[in-house]
Amino acid sequence: MTPTALDASQADARLDELTVVDVRTPGEYACGHLPGALNIPLDQLRRALPALRDVRGELLVVCASGARSLNACGLLAEHGIRALTLTGGTQGWAASGQRLDRPATRDRTVWAMERQVRFTAGTVVLVGLGLGLLHPAWQLLSAAIAGGLVFSALTNTCGMAVLLGKLPHNRPRAADLDTTLAALAHR
């Protein structure tokens, strides 16, 4: 079942009646999120299923571009929870001129996951090419990254993003997720 998608103007018009769940990493969420959005990273969504099942009204799931929110909507649908997705994600929201909220207490900015992936892939390719000057076998490292990028594009998944999402600055603290789930229960 394909979830219903709202564009930025439709979501903005209904924002007060929607429960917005942002499935990006905490670092991405802190860089800017839809007003009132709650952060439940995609890899923590199963833990939130009981609270999401009890949400009154409609649920809008968002991510950076829309790919992770589609995955989240699929998981929710498997558990009998209907959810909407935001076309273009927070990038589309911001591009349409909508306001993004940012936590006031954030002391450092964490790069968006897409930027982290581009930086890491580029660095590994350069290292592979540089080490390839010492021994040609090192060029396989660059080839592996190129293959991974092609696979990522064809499947609309990103293994590197999954790995980077496990780094400490991209992980939610247990207390943060518990606070989010408590806030969700009071909606």
How does this structure look, described?
This protein is α/β, with parallel strands linked by helices and about 190 residues long. The chain is built from nine helices and five strands. It has a five-stranded parallel beta sheet. α2 (about 25-30) links the parallel β2 and β3 (about 40). α6 runs antiparallel to α7. The longest helix is centred in the middle third of the chain and has 20 residues, at about 115-130. It is elongated, with a radius of gyration of 18 Å.
Brief characterization of the structure:
The chain is of the alpha/beta class and 187 residues long.
* Continuous helix count: 9
Low-pLDDT regions = none
Helix/strand/pairing class, anyone? alpha/beta
How does the major sheet shape up? 5 strands, parallel
